[in-house]
Amino acid sequence: MQRKIVLLFCLLLIATMVLVACKPTPAPESTPVAGYPAPNEPINTTEPAGYPGPDVVYRIATDATFPPFEMVDEATKQLTGFDIDLMKAIAQKANIKYEFVNLPFDPMLAGLSECQYDMAIAAITITEDRQKEFAFSNPYIDAGQIIVIKKGTDSIKSKADLNGKVIGAQLGTTGEIEAKAIEGTTYKPYDTYDLAFLDLANGQIDAVIADYPTALGFIAQNPDKLETVGDKFTNESYGIAICKDKSYLVDIINPALQAVIDDGTLTELAGKYLTGQ
């Protein structure tokens, strides 16, 4: 089961990278790519004097409770994960300085909407509503929603079997949006996904709705207790969210992201964090 999940994920990741690699990086006057900014939204392409400048340090927000995308290494107490290493590689290609700010997901998005932070990377799904609040980079991974159950649960085979069940998801995520939309269920919110999956493994809830890559990360940590069921039932992609007042950064981040794809770094990170290879 796990080998099948890994193979499917690898195929989805490769398909996503091919699609992204085929997209040219938009110039300020060109038609925006999906996720950058919403239709009819003004695009700020005015760079500050001396941009980026040797003293400019960009604040990049994250929520380090989404293994394997972002987490805190218990030994070093440092941020680590797929998104963290990806952002470091992008910053190096873009030749920009940065600092990470770790905070919960909802306050992270709220702070970014007020431009308390310049960017955010935290397995952030590009949605129409979020496009109204932020600019987005090109997508870097395919991440539809999927159902996770306690291993051996025979009563749930697909989304149609969730009627009458208790479903968990993390506050502020697209998983929460989808969980709330399923009729005939009881939704239980969680501050973090690790708490939701812990309750699921202990039989306190019946299922968790989560992004497919996030689900894989938690299943890898608990292969004897958790498993996915059914197929992904949404089409979503992760992107780097950017403060609208600094949406000119899209034209700095996108070429750097493409360079990270082209030189194989994205594939290497997928092998390290997402497939366990």
Give a written overview of the molecule.
The longest helix is centred in the first third of the chain and has 20 residues. The protein has 2 domains: 172 residues, D-Maltodextrin-Binding Protein, domain 2 (3-Layer(aba) Sandwich); 85 residues, Periplasmic binding protein-like II (D-Maltodextrin-Binding Protein, domain 2). It has 277 residues and is α/β, with parallel strands linked by helices. A 5-stranded mixed sheet has the order 4-1-5-14-6. The N terminus is likely disordered. Helix 1 packs antiparallel against helix 9. It is built from 9 helices and 14 strands.
Tell me, rounded to a whole number, the average pLDDT. 83
Give the CA-CA distance, first to last residue: 16 Å
CATH-wise, what's the superfamily of the largest domain? Periplasmic binding protein-like II
- Say what the CATH topology of the largest domain is: D-Maltodextrin-Binding Protein, domain 2
- Sum up the overall morphology in one term: globular
Q: Would you identify the CATH architecture of the largest domain?
A: 3-Layer(aba) Sandwich
CATH class of the largest domain: Alpha Beta
* Total of helices: 9
Strand content is: 15-25%
Walk across the major sheet and give the strand order.
4-1-5-14-6
Low-pLDDT sequence parts: 1-12, 14-46
Tell me about the biggest sheet? 5 strands, mixed
Helix content: 25-40%
Order of helices and strands: HEEEHEHEHEEEEHEHEHEEEHH
From the alpha-carbon coordinates, what is the Rg to the nearest angstrom? 19 Å
SSE class: alpha/beta
What's the count of strands? 14
